[in-house]
Amino acid sequence: MPKKKPRFSGRRAVIVLSLALLICMLLTSCFADGNGETTNIFIVVLVRPFAYILRWIYDWCNSFGWALILFTLLTRLILLPLNIKSKKGMAAMQALQPKVKELEKKYQSDKQKYQEEVAKLYKKEGVSPMGGCLPTLLTLPIMFALYWPISQPLKYLMSLSSAQIDAVREQLILVGAKVNGVLVSATSSEMTLVQAIHDHFDAVSGISENIIPMNLTFLGMNLGAVPSFTSFNVLFLLPIISAGTSFLLSKLTTWLQERTTGTKSTQQNGMILWMMPLISIWIGFTLPAGLTVYWIASNLVGMLQEVFISYYIQKKEKEPLKEADSSNDKNSRSNRKNNG
């Protein structure tokens, strides 16, 4: 009897990689919008909608820091059903690990047969190996999409054209605007310009009605600045706090998963436990502080969400058992009546 072909053949892998490459090219391919500005699908689909929501929240609360925190709550609530489904899948995957280990021992000399049997087991139990990764993968596009509104607030939060941004910069240079004691120059970033606009609003307000005196300060921190290894200040603490909350979130997630399934975490979970804090530190020291505030808020809300989802899953698992016990009690009482 001829052997079955592997579930994922080389040809299929090439097709998947080609499709992934095509999607990346489509998302990043540039074109001109209605105002003649260069843009791409990623900016149209994610960046601009997120910028609109972030600006709407800012107008409501008049605080850039609180706007980021409320935006975090909003995205977490939207992704909550997907997270619940993902956690159920991860719990089911963890519960199947003893059976997977048995298959590994049984077919240790035939890797192809082992993969086929594991795939059959997952299909039979209705489990997707990649299902638990989706919420984590969705977090990264949100982070990337938020980078533009935070690093280029004039373009995305105030909807200014390139010509208007240049006019703002020239006017601020003309009036001798300073930010942290440094004169605004031709190379000043949009984050610097926003801070200068806050202090010299009358000088630039006539350029566009979209210009507002936006304040990037939150709890004494400039959320438009990038923390530095060389200067120890309040901003320096943000990446450390971000890494700490990432570690606590991963630790809590692992503990709740072990508590729910009754099985020990895998080596892969151990790698994630340390990988996310390292990513948090890298993000914290290379991107504007506003993104780190978003990441910290996301981690803190994630902890509460993990506890809720764990309680929700356990409650749902107990409901069939209660119904079965209730049904058994009814049958038992009926049998006693009949016998009596």
Topology readout:
Blueprint: H1 10-28, E1 30-32, E2 38-40, H2 41-61, H3 64-95, H4 97-106, H5 111-125, H6 134-151, H7 153-156, H8 162-174, E3 178-179, E4 182-183, H9 190-199, H10 201-204, E5 217-218, E6 221-222, H11 234-261, H12 267-286, H13 289-339
Antiparallel strand pairs: 1-2, 3-4, 5-6
Helix pairs in contact: 2-3, 2-6, 3-11, 3-13, 4-5, 6-13, 8-9, 11-12, 11-13, 12-13
Helix content: over 70%
Strand order in space, largest sheet: 1-2
Average pLDDT value?
Answer: 76
Share of residues in strands: under 5%
Tell me the span between the first and last alpha carbons.
62 Å
Please describe what this structure looks like.
By secondary structure, this protein is mainly α. It has 13 helices and six strands. The strands form three sheets. Strands 1-2 form a two-stranded antiparallel sheet. A hairpin with a 2-residue loop joins β5 and β6. Mean pLDDT is 76; it is low at 1-10 and 321-325.
Annotation keywords:
340 residues, mainly alpha, two-stranded antiparallel ribbon, 6 strands, 72% helix, elongated, disordered N terminus
